C-alpha cells in the first residue's frame, strides 16, 4: 500500500507534463507545412487523443469524483484509438512504399483518404466502447476496466508483424520514426497483457497490496507513450524538426538542428 501515493503523484506529474508537451506538439502539427502531409494527419489525431487520455487521467487521479466511470472509459478509448492509429500509420507507410511508383500511391496518400480512414476507425472504436458501457451498465461502482486481453493480443501481434514489415519495406525519411514508435507501443502493451495472464493463473496467490501496486505501475507505463511521440518526432522527422526550428527564435534553437541543411527537409507526402 505504501507505493500507492508516490505512484499516484508520479502519474499526476507525468500526465501534467505530458499534457503541456502534447498541446505544444499539436500546435506544431497544425502548421501549414505539415497540415496535409500523410503521416502528420495521423499524428494530429493521435496528439488529440493523447490530450484526451491525459486530461481524463488528471481528472481521475486528482478530483474526488463519486463516479469515475466516464474517465475510465475516456482513458481506455483514447488508449485503444492511438494504438490502432499507430498500426494504420505503419500499414499506410508499407503500402505506399511498395506502390511508390504506381497510381495506388497517389490514392492512398491523399488527405481525404487518410482522414476518412482515421475517422472511420475512431467512430468504430466509439461504438465498441459504447457497447462495452452498455454491457457493463448493470455492474455497480465500476472503479477499473481492463482492456480485453484478446484485443491486447491482436495489438501485440500487429506491432510485431508491422515492425518486420516496416523493416523490410519501409522507406526514408519516416521509416526510423515508425519503427521506434511501434517498438515503444509494443513494449508498453506487453506488460498489461502478461499481467492479465499472470492474474488469471495465480489470482488466489496474489495479495491485494500487490494488485494495487501493479495497477499503478501499469497505469504509469500506459501514460509513457502519450508523452514520448513528440520527442521521437523531434529526433527522427526532418520536416517536423524544421517547423520546430522555425517556431523557436534562432538563439534558442536546439543544437540538434545545427547539422541539418535544407536538403534534409524534403517532403515525402
Automatic annotation (TrEMBL):
InterPro entries: 7TM_GPCR_serpentine_rcpt_Srw. The chain crosses the membrane at residues 12-30, 42-60, 80-99, 111-131, 151-170, 177-198. Keywords: Membrane, Transmembrane, Transmembrane helix. GO terms for molecular function: G protein-coupled peptide receptor activity. Pfam families: 7TM_GPCR_Srw. It comes from the Eukaryota. PANTHER family: G-PROTEIN COUPLED RECEPTOR-RELATED (PTHR22751), G-PROTEIN COUPLED RECEPTORS FAMILY 1 PROFILE DOMAIN-CONTAINING PROTEIN-RELATED (PTHR22751:SF283). This is G_PROTEIN_RECEP_F1_2 domain-containing protein.
Amino acid at each position: 500500500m505504501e507505493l500507492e501515493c508516490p505512484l499516484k503523484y508520479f502519474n499526476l506529474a507525468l500526465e501534467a507534463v505530458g499534457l503541456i508537451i502534447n498541446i505544444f506538439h499539436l500546435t506544431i502539427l497544425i502548421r501549414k507545412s505539415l497540415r496535409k502531409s500523410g503521416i502528420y494527419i495521423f499524428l494530429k489525431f493521435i496528439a488529440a487523443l493523447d490530450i484526451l487520455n491525459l486530461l481524463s487521467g488528471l481528472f481521475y487521479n486528482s478530483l474526488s469524483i463519486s463516479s469515475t466511470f466516464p474517465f475510465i472509459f475516456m482513458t481506455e478509448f483514447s488508449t485503444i484509438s492511438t494504438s490502432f492509429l499507430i498500426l494504420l500509420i505503419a500499414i499506410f507507410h508499407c503500402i505506399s512504399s511498395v506502390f511508390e511508383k504506381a497510381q495506388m500511391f497517389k490514392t492512398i496518400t491523399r488527405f481525404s483518404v487518410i482522414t476518412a480512414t482515421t475517422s472511420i476507425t475512431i467512430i468504430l472504436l466509439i461504438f465498441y466502447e459504447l457497447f462495452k458501457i452498455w454491457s457493463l451498465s448493470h455492474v455497480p461502482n465500476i472503479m477499473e476496466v481492463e482492456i480485453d486481453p484478446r484485443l491486447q493480443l491482436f495489438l501485440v501481434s500487429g506491432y510485431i508483424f508491422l515492425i518486420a514489415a516496416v523493416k523490410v519495406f519501409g522507406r526514408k525519411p519516416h521509416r526510423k520514426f515508425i519503427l521506434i514508435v511501434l517498438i515503444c507501443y509494443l513494449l508498453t502493451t506487453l506488460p498489461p497483457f502478461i499481467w492479465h495472464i499472470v492474474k488469471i493463473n495465480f489470482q488466489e496467490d496474489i495479495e491485494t497490496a500487490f494488485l494495487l501496486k501493479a495497477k499503478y505501475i501499469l497505469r504509469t507505463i500506459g501514460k509513457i507513450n502519450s508523452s514520448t511521440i513528440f520527442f521521437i518526432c523531434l529526433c527522427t522527422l526532418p520536416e517536423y524538426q524544421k517547423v520546430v526550428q522555425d517556431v523557436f527564435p534562432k538563439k534558442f534553437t536546439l543544437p540538434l538542428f545545427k547539422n541539418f541543411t535544407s536538403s534534409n527537409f524534403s517532403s515525402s507526402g
